[in-house]
């Protein structure tokens, strides 16, 4: 069964009420497929995709309400990279992996300090500079990825140097105007980085992303927004109530990709934006620590929610921008 995010596009715009009863057979099929492939793996083993290895048992968190951590996000990006390579082999879109997006934020934060190192050819920044140079040479025309902000939240952004636009999506503030987008940290980071490579006239735009209705779906919402941007015919935006289904279907895709490519993935073009080939193995960028974000859990309002486990209590509930504005006026 090929994946389109596991959802009927007619029911997945994030607007209106999903047809739960009519969707039940498709939902069950997705869950059963994912469980079947998961049970085929040794629970004491590991799974490796694009040189990222994790214990098989940790994959079970895709079938839960656990907040998606960095390894899980990178695995989803590998699925998208595989689909891009298969369906759009001539695409000039570059997927920024988490080492890239984290490094961009770090470099931007250091830009006005004595520790500023970009855009030099120093080893820790060389792979970021190469991506910028690829945009200048038109080998790439756009790049995008998922960014970790505020120590507890995933957002999505795309920079298109042909249209001169930076698109930004935040599932906690999906209805932001372009003016509001321009004041957010990640678009400003991308603007600063692109200016280092001669792109000085970038404007801001809102990226299509579904609003999350819980405290833990920012990861899957950000991924689906990026996948929908890259392959709109393959990925539909999930209704918030179907976020769990999208996660389970991605689990099936990740395992299938592991089984199909683990032997020859290192030579694949999909590894291009993971880490720089010029970096020594011992000097690769440390993976970020991503703490669990929020305290309360809302039960999914679907029959299949009984199959999803509940994550441990999490500190500090996220607040939407509207809540923050209201409290600031009080």
From TrEMBL:
A GO molecular-function descriptor: cysteine-type peptidase activity
Keywords tagged on the record: Hydrolase, Protease
Bias type Basic and acidic residues, positions: 321-330
InterPro entries reported in the protein's UniProt record: Papain-like_cys_pep_sf, Peptidase_C48_C
Residue ranges occupied by any Ubiquitin-like protease family profile domain in the UniProt entry: 52-229
Keyword Lipid metabolism included in the entry's annotation: no
Domain of life: Eukaryota
Family affiliation: Belongs to the peptidase C48 family.
Listed name of the protein: Ubiquitin-like protease family profile domain-containing protein
